[in-house]
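Homework help board

Subject: predicted structure for assignment chain

Our instructor gave us this sequence and asked us to write out the predicted structure in token form, then describe one feature. I got the tokens but I'm not sure how to describe them. Can anyone check?
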Amino acid sequence: MPVYRTGQGRFAKWFRKFDPATVSARFTQVRDLASDRAQEGLTLFASAQDLVRPILDKYAVSGPDRAKYIGFANMLLKHAVRNKGDAAVKSAQGIKQYYVIKMGADPTICDEIIQVIMGWVTPY
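My token output:
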């Protein structure tokens, strides 16, 4: 019979495990590595957003809709970095469907963003 952890047990472990001195020491030890990785990742996302902005200007997308499409590009990039080949195509299709159906995004704009971010257009 499996034993499930209770909320109280989880809190007790967390309370003992996360001593401020230990956490501080761990963060200090990996600070340089974390800084390099953050710089690499933030630059990657900023570059992707720079590629998407002209598309949004072309279609006169303004206000909150710009944030929607920038978020679409960010999510595409996140999955493109993790997936390759068919997995990347399926991820892009799913993300596009979500943004078109749930967020009211224009499929044509999404296709252009996909083309810029991932280098191909998926059928809708």
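Reply (TA_rk): Your tokens look well-formed. For the description, you could write something like this. The chain has five helices and no strands. That's the kind of observation they're looking for.
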